[in-house]
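@channel anyone free to eyeball this complex?
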Amino acid sequence: RKEVEQDPGPFNVPEGATVAFNCTYSNSASQSFFWYRQDCRKEPKLLMSVYSSGNEDGRFTAQLNRASQYISLLIRDSKLSDSATYLCVAFTGGGNKLTFGTGTQLKVEL
Amino acid sequence: GAVVSQHPSWVICKSGTSVKIECRSLDFQATTMFWYRQFPKQSLMLMATSNEGSKATYEQGVEKDKFLINHASLTLSTLTVTSAHPEDSSFYICSAQTSGAGDTQYFGPGTRLTVL
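replying in thread with the prediction:
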């Protein structure tokens, strides 16, 4: 079983739609969680951290459920420029390492 | 924000040759640098963690004699793929972290290696 699992997609949505991605992690020792965005053939870029209380950054909302070991990302009012692969990432302090999911591909269409 | 550069951006080489990739932190000192590899449609996989002035720590399954890592200064780490073969073709990405464990990792733009 992969340490961080995501549905690879692709998710094809019309512009303006609301879309949600889910992620599960298996290592209960993971301390912090993040969503990264990766464009084709580019490096990943930090989108936002994820907190148990839920956090929002503009059109993006992230949520962490430690009991279920589940993380979500909600994108409202999708833009064409949101088309990318979204990576769910867990940080484990003991090993000081980030573990990446395989990513969920989003395609926003006109 | 913190900037990390990688050189070269892409490289095509013949099987059996060695390729060196540089990772530099341009405006901060990186006590720790990480090397990742990403195959098409797969996640980034951590290859090794390197701390300035000490030997790198390799992840399970990564051959340390094949992927040589040198972190000689607080702003430069190099990864050398020795005797590269077509199966080594991949996207290699480095990241750099400032002083504390758990600090944000800043990613380089990646190096695309193609071995013929």
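from a first look: DSSP finds no helices and eleven strands in chain A.
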